[in-house]
Fold this protein.
Amino acid sequence: MKRFGVVAAFLFLSSLAVFLSSLAVAYGSDKQDGVVDQRQFKPSYLATAHPHKKLTPDDWTNPKICGQCHSRQYQGWKGSMHANSFKDPVFQALWAMTEKATNGRFENFCSGCHSPIGTATQTIKFDPKKGKHGGFSAPLMAEHGVSCDVCHTIKGSNFQRTATLEHGNASIILDPGNVKRAPLKNSKSSYHETAYSKLHTSSRLCGNCHNIFHPENNFPIERTYDEWKYSIYAQNGIQCMDCHMVPVSTAIRVADELKRPHDLDNSQIGGFAGLGGPWRKVVHDHYFVGGNAVMTAALQGRKSLNYDQAQQRLKSVASLKLFVKPRKTPGLHQLKIRVTNERAGHNLPTSLTEVRQIWLEVVVRDDKGRELLRSGTMDDKRVLPDDTVIFNAQAVDKKGQHTAFPWAVTRFVDTNTIPPRGHKDGKYSFYIPDDSRNITISAALHYRSFSQGLADMLLGKGKVIVPVVDMTALEKSYVVKNRKIGTGLPTAHGHAATTKGGN
């Protein structure tokens, strides 16, 4: 019995040691109970399939070579934010500021998603004298950012070893070589080997970089994948690529019908996935279109197809409704404008929500041309008034001070993003004068990737003028009776509710 007790105790202590070891690795500490952090490129979770093998950029294939057989995909990718993820000057400026603020601790954290090849080969260099804040350079293959061969040599995910036990912070396993992985089960190539990958059929592939948590305090900074994961789209089996790798017209149908592209009638998105391959009902484009219309235009020196598609997506994603209610005080009315996220499979906005800006511009006038209310109109310096209703998040640092810098974020003190198929309201009050007979309410929803002030701070004053996309607009006219809006119907000589760019 004593021997049994000793053995049991030994087994218990051994199991406890293994458990503590797994915790130390999972939670990414440098050292805990004698267990060394096993991340290859900390604080990123990016890993390679053969960690003891030294890789070089030449272990990956140049996208131009891929484009010789996959021209459709290459044409879409080369103007995308994936292709420009390393070169993006806004990212470069933020990254450089991060490098200085954290003494280099976060370098791999940023590059793990923006240049996986540069991270895996440790070939990225920082020059503090480059540009306004410093800048990074890398071999050409690494400068391609999230290139064809990055995604198609991903072998798996190590998300179960992250600090949050969730996808994120580049939780991918790269296995560069002649085998290219994709969602097709019957693909063949005369140039390289092919392998079916279930991971490539799922949003889990995207979630490895489109979920970001702070590498030191674990605060969730970007939650695009999680926002989708608990949405009605995920409940219906709709994946990220079903909206972001098809034309905008198809993405609209996917959202409205809650069907995957494969299940849509007359989807007209068939074609050839590669030179010499069979015709397929669905061929995914590689534009990866989101809402970022700023950098795609700035980097290419012109407005590209990616820019146009980004605008189309933004103009098709939301709708507005007006509600007007008289208050007890004579002439005083409450105006409520409801913004509904009709077609985004994640929150609106998403990703870096502490810098994104979606806002309402509202103007109320009477029949004599007097402004009874104005809110959300930019001034001549492209600054929004303090009372503007903005849909985003307010981040603070450890001192409780507002910050737009990801490395400094400790928490959000306010989150006003709009969930998929959800809505948020902007509320206003206005006063109708005694002699007003009609009023007209105009509401517009606008988007910009970040404020002009942040752009000036990162890049230099006026270097990039941040475009404002008019997402949708609504205008209604009402009859005024006894200083109250009468029936709430449009005036006889006016028009019914006019919506631009919404449904």
Observations:
- Confidence is low (pLDDT under 50) at residues 6-35, 487-503.
- Residues 47-236 form one domain.
- DSSP finds 16 helices and 25 strands in the chain.
